[in-house]
Write a structure and sequence with these properties.
The protein is an all-alpha fold. The chain has two domains: about 50 residues, no CATH class; about 35 residues. Helix content is about 80%, strand content about 0%. It contains three helices and no strands. The protein is rod-shaped, with a radius of gyration of 22 Å.
C-alpha cells in the first residue's frame, strides 16, 4: 500500500470517526445509528473517488496530473528555445 492509499484511508477514517462521535455525543448510544452515521459520512467521498469525470479526486485525477506536467514541461522547453533564438 503506497502513501496515497494510506492518506486516503486516513481521510475516510477521520470522516467516519467524526460522524460517529457526533452521533454518540447527542446521547444516542445505538451502535447501528453510529455505524450508519459513519457510513453516511464516508459515502460521498467514496462516490467522488470512483467518479472518472472528477478531475480532482476521481479515477482520472492521476491522468490529469500527468498531462498537466507534460504541458508545463512543453511550455518551459518552448520558452527556452524562443529565448535562445532571440539571443
Amino acid at each position: 500500500m503506497n502513501a496515497k492509499h494510506k492518506a486516503m484511508l486516513a481521510s475516510y477514517g477521520r470522516s467516519f470517526l467524526a460522524a460517529a462521535v457526533a452521533v454518540y455525543a447527542t446521547g444516542n448510544s445505538d451502535w447501528r445509528a453510529i455505524l450508519v452515521a459513519g457510513a453516511s459520512a464516508v459515502l460521498p467521498v467514496a462516490i467522488r473517488a470512483i467518479n472518472p469525470k472528477d478531475a480532482a479526486f476521481g479515477v482520472g485525477a492521476d491522468l490529469l496530473v500527468i498531462e498537466l506536467n507534460k504541458l508545463a514541461t512543453a511550455k518551459k522547453t518552448a520558452a527556452k528555445k524562443t529565448a535562445k533564438k532571440k539571443s
